[in-house]
Amino acid sequence: NAGVTQTPKFQVLKTGQSMTLQCAQDMNHNSMYWYRQDPGMGLRLIYYSASEGTTDKGEVPNGYNVSRLNKREFSLRLESAAPSQTSVYFCASSASGASNQPQHFGDGTRLSIL
Amino acid sequence: AQSVAQPEDQVNVAEGNPLTVKCTYSVSGNPYLFWYVQYPNRGLQFLLKYITGDNLVKGSYGFEAEFNKSQTSFHLKKPSALVSDSALYFCAVRDMNTGGFKTIFGAGTRLFVKA
Hints:
The complex is a heterodimer.
Chain A: E1 4-7, E2 10-13, E3 19-25, E4 31-37, E5 43-49, E6 56-57, E7 64-68, E8 74-78, E9 87-94, E10 104-105, E11 109-113
Parallel strand pairs in A: 2-11
Antiparallel strand pairs in A: 1-3, 3-8, 4-5, 4-9, 5-6, 7-8, 9-10, 9-11
Chain B: E1 3-5, E2 10-14, E3 19-21, E4 24-26, E5 33-38, E6 44-50, E7 56-58, E8 64-68, E9 73-78, E10 87-95, E11 102-105, E12 109-114
Parallel strand pairs in B: 2-12
Antiparallel strand pairs in B: 1-4, 3-9, 5-6, 5-10, 7-8, 8-9, 10-11, 10-12
């Protein structure tokens, strides 16, 4: 019952460093998402992948890149980390982009940029 | 633009009492609405959804939600609160203008249930 697995769980970076957050799902879902969660702001969509081979920008894509490596894996990369990117990052997946399907979330990566 | 509002940052209720967590929405077209719960240091978990049909939707852990089209509301309810219900609750709406891939979340409401 792994569901959506995110690595690492915690990370501290210095400003300007790069890092890739990993996400994998074992539910054979087509669609995958990356969100950031900041206090009082709910979740904001960074990027999503409607299906294998496609990616699209969400609400707050600046400073991030993504790769849909295969159907299971969807990674998020910070090329040059900034303190404003300190946040909790969540990966999610859904069976398809069909609107009636809920999303399944990982337990998050807590990222601090010094 | 589609949006979701959760007017209360925090709701306090005594164990055994009924609870309500409020949500209002603004959408063009038919709303696709969801409630999620988040426990400390965990990801969001799906509770229930409204797509179409009966205005009273039942979900996990004894929760239910009432869809009210005229008031554009989708309030989460439970007849008898448990201490273990204490968590952060998010209302969400699917943005149909982008084919349903984008979900807009409210800011969240923290529920405290006192024993």
